[in-house]
């Protein structure tokens, strides 16, 4: 009995590739599935652009979070930071667009530095510290807005950031690509990036090798802070407004995407390419759930299940890595 | 008949771990009510033997007879059920509960409703303590007790479980002379009740005082079992060493100048080490011998800046240096290869070349950007020089053998051209072939002028490689042996006996 082609070398190589690129495979599979189920709506230009815009903000945050996680830490506060960085530029908009943008980025920088200081220098537990910061920043956001929804000016140049195009590509997407590329270079080609991997992989060895692990961690949090600030600018520009709670749940999406992309919760492992795929996959899943009309509560449940599955996948990968 | 009193018989026990045969056809027997001393060098197999007895390891081959019946000690619970208790060097009493709660941990007196009767607990505890003539405040939290008192709690606990065998692993290591006296009184008391004691210690004078018989282990095998009155100190040491000492001096590194490159003055860290003073000469290999727990690793980690010292000064070429962290140490040309390869040195998720260059990032970069070319160059250089076996530069280091992994760590430090290199147990857990290679490498660097400090618990290694040996015990340097005096016997004597001035 002849089994057609199943034992050929090509088949074996294919199986191996599938196993090692599981997430990418799932993504491709999903896209094919959606193509079959909702061909017209899924592949419409409008829908695809929509996905891309949604992904952009999460993706920018994910690039920063990837760095923090590679260093062995977490940041649960980025949800409130996003809200803050949406509210600030909208409120400062009347004083000048450039001023608003710069101020927001400085806010992101400062929050990142505070997190980095508490966790890096003072050796706080990143989970608890950033969880506390989540509340503090949310409080500050409520304070400066008085709890009110902020309106922006749809005629201003500012609106262009979120809704404009350059050569038919939405600006948010371009910004995402630029930041992803930058992050890629930083992680794979710089001393800082390498130090980050070493710090997350074995902090004792990093210390013993003369790496200043405190500074490295601090810097990763600052980068995340600045990236989230940019994300906030884009998002508030997309809708010309800012709710004080707009960023709620953002950390959830970002962390899910990063873990899906193969970055380990324990540190030392992760790539921008993987995060990119994770972000796209999450975006496609979210979009698909809307297109097939899944009720919102179920969408939430599905996303939760995905995060849990992603974490198990992480430890599975981690375990396999040391199977000699 | 003697056999009726034979409580335990371990026959032909063999136990292997990856790369190492810890016990090789070893035998051990124990009579009721005897105190039996178990001696041997580090690595002779003592701790493996008692771990098998206490159920933490499973023997590969052999038979265990308890009260003349064959038993399988498959887990610690089974061991306790048989009546075997073990008191470790590091006391594992639960610190935040009281003395009586610890002693009766496994059998608290409960009434019908399952509620603990605190009064009976107190009574029972006092009963046990009285039997041993021990005076302890039963309601005191264990964490507030001295080490000696904690030990007594452990012994009392063993009794409360009606143990037939009490294993004591280096019990006198952290006791004063008076406390040892009290300990021995307690041991004699439990002996009267028919309990047997397996007493592991390096202190031969104690063994002669308290034990009835002694078994010497060497290289995983029992060499001799004798009544202590039928033997003496010298004979036991001879059995512990037993090796052909002739061939140990080949390829010995002889070069050493008179220039002092490193001087450590008055190093002190509370409860870890004290009165540490020594000099390192240019081009020499200085060995640090001693038992586990003597403070050697902590000492070198402190010199390197990983641990903070309470007091002490460091001089390099007679200039005082302030080393607050590893970066300072590296700047002064010091390198440290840590003891625990996996947890302290290897960055398991990264590749071979990335591990080699981990401390040389400045060297292989320009303006903050890494140069792949320089990284490859640097790692290839050391892969060739140290004969590191790896299919490719980008191989994940987790997949290399222990010996090759260690070579990678050595390469990491060689890349910085240190003038002082500290090696903490450099060949632990490594196969014989790689071990020899690494020894050759170390000797080569010393010949080229690097000054080396080497910590090792392996007698052979320390004798073969070092010009001078400092022996540490309980956080102090107890002896300094120079070239001519360097031999196994003198090292063992230092580790087991009296303190000499150096």
Describe this structure in words.
The complex is a heterodimer of chains A (324) and B (502). Chain A has one domain: Orthogonal Bundle (ABC transporter involved in vitamin B12 uptake, BtuC), CATH 1.10.3470. Chain A is built from 15 helices and four strands. The longest helix of chain A has 27 residues. The C terminus of chain A is likely disordered. Chain B is of the alpha/beta class and 502 residues long. Chain B folds into three domains: 240 residues, 3-Layer(aba) Sandwich (Rossmann fold), CATH 3.40.50.300; 133 residues, Rossmann fold (3-Layer(aba) Sandwich); 84 residues, 3-Layer(aba) Sandwich (Rossmann fold). A six-stranded mixed sheet of chain B has the order 6-7-8-3-9-10, with helices on both faces. Chain B has a six-stranded mixed sheet with strand order 16-19-20-13-21-22, with helices on both faces. A four-stranded antiparallel sheet of chain B has the order 2-1-4-5, with no helix packed on it. Chain B is elongated and about 75 Å long. Classes of the chains: A mainly alpha (324), B alpha/beta (502). At the A-B interface, helix 10 and helix 11 of A face helix 10, helix 11 and strand 18 of B.
Quick synopsis:
The complex is a heterodimer of chains A (324) and B (502). Chain A has 324 residues and is mainly α.
């Amino acid at each position: 009995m002849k089994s057609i082609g199943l034992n050929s070398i090509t088949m074996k190589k294919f199986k191996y590739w599938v196993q090692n690129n599981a997430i990418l495979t799932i993504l491709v599979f999903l896209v094919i599935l959606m193509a079959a189920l909702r061909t017209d709506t899924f592949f419409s230009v409008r829908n695809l652009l929509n996905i891309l815009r949604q992904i952009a903000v999460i993706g920018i945050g994910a690039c920063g979070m990837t760095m923090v996680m590679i260093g062995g830490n977490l940041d649960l506060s980025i949800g409130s930071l996003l809200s803050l960085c949406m509210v600030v530029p909208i409120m400062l908009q009347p004083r000048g667009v450039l001023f608003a943008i710069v101020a927001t980025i400085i806010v992101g920088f400062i929050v990142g530095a505070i997190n980095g200081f508490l966790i890096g220098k003072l050796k706080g537990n990143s989970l608890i510290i950033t969880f506390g910061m989540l509340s503090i920043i949310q409080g500050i956001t409520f304070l400066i807005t008085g709890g009110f929804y902020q309106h922006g000016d749809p005629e201003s140049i500012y609106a262009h950031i979120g809704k404009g195009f350059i050569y038919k590509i939405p600006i948010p997407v371009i910004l995402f690509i630029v930041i992803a590329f930058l992050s890629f270079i930083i992680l794979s080609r710089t001393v800082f990036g390498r130090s980050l991997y070493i710090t997350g992989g074995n902090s004792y060895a990093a210390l013993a090798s003369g790496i200043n692990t405190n500074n490295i961690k601090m810097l990763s949090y600052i980068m995340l802070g600045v990236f989230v600030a940019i994300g906030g600018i884009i998002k508030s520009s997309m809708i010309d407004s800012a709710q004080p709670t707009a960023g709620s749940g953002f950390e959830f999406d970002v962390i899910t995407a990063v873990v899906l992309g193969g970055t380990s919760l324990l540190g030392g492992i992760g790539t921008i390419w993987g995060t990119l795929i994770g972000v796209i996959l999450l975006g496609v899943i979210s979009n698909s759930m809307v297109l097939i009309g899944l009720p919102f509560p179920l969408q939430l449940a599905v996303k939760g299940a995905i995060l849990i599955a992603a974490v198990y996948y992480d430890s599975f990968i981690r375990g396999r890595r040391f199977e000699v | 008949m003697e056999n009726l009193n034979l409580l335990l018989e371990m026959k032909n026990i063999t136990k292997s771990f990856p790369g190492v045969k810890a016990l090789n056809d070893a035998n051990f027997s124990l009579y009721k009510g005897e105190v039996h001393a178990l001696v041997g060098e580090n690595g002779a197999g003592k701790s493996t033997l008692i771990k098998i007895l206490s159920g933490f390891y499973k023997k590969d081959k052999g038979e265990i007879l308890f009260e003349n019946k064959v038993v399988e000690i498959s887990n610690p619970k089974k061991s306790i059920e048989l009546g075997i208790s073990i008191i470790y060097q590091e006391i594992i009493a639960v610190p935040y509960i009281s003395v009586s709660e610890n002693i009766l941990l496994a059998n608290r007196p409960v009434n019908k409703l399952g509620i603990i009767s605190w009064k009976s607990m107190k009574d029972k505890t006092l009963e046990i303590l009285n039997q041993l003539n021990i005076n302890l405040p039963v309601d005191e939290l264990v964490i507030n007790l001295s080490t000696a008192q904690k030990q007594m709690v452990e012994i009392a606990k063993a009794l409360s479980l009606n143990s037939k065998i009490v294993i004591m692993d280096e019990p006198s290591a952290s006791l004063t002379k008076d406390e040892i006296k009290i300990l021995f009184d307690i041991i004699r008391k439990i002996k009267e009740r028919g309990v047997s004691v397996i007493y592991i210690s390096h202190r031969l004078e104690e063994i002669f005082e308290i034990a009835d018989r002694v078994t010497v282990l060497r290289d995983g095998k029992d060499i001799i079992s004798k009544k202590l009155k039928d033997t003496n100190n010298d004979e036991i040491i001879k059995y512990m060493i037993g090796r052909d000492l002739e061939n140990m001096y080949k390829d010995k590194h002889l070069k050493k100048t008179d220039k002092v490159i490193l001087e450590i003055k008055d190093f002190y860290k509370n409860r870890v080490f004290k009165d540490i003073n020594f000099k390192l000469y240019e081009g020499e290999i200085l060995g640090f011998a001693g038992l586990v727990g003597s403070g050697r690793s902590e000492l070198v980690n402190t010199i390197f800046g990983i641990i903070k010292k309470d007091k002490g000064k460091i001089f390099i070429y007679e200039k005082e240096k302030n080393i607050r962290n590893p970066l300072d140490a590296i700047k002064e040309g010091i390198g440290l290869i840590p003891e625990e390869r996996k947890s302290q040195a290897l960055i398991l998720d990264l590749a071979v070349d990335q591990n080699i260059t981990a401390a040389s990032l400045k060297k292989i970069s320009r303006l903050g950007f890494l140069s792949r070319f320089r990284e490859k160059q640097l790692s290839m250089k050391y892969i060739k020089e140290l004969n590191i076996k790896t299919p490719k530069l980008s191989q994940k280091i987790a997949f290399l053998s222990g010996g090759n992994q260690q070579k990678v760590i050595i390469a990491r430090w060689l890349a910085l051209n240190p003038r002082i290199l500290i090696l903490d147990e450099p060949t632990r857990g490594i196969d014989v072939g790689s071990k020899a290679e690494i020894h050759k490498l170390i000797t080569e660097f010393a010949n080229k002028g690097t000054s080396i400090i080497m910590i090792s618990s392996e007698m052979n290694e320390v004798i073969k490689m070092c010009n001078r040996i400092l022996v540490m015990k309980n956080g102090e340097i107890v002896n300094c042996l120079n070239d001519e005096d360097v031999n196994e016997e003198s090292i063992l004597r230092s580790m087991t006996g009296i303190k000499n001035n150096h």
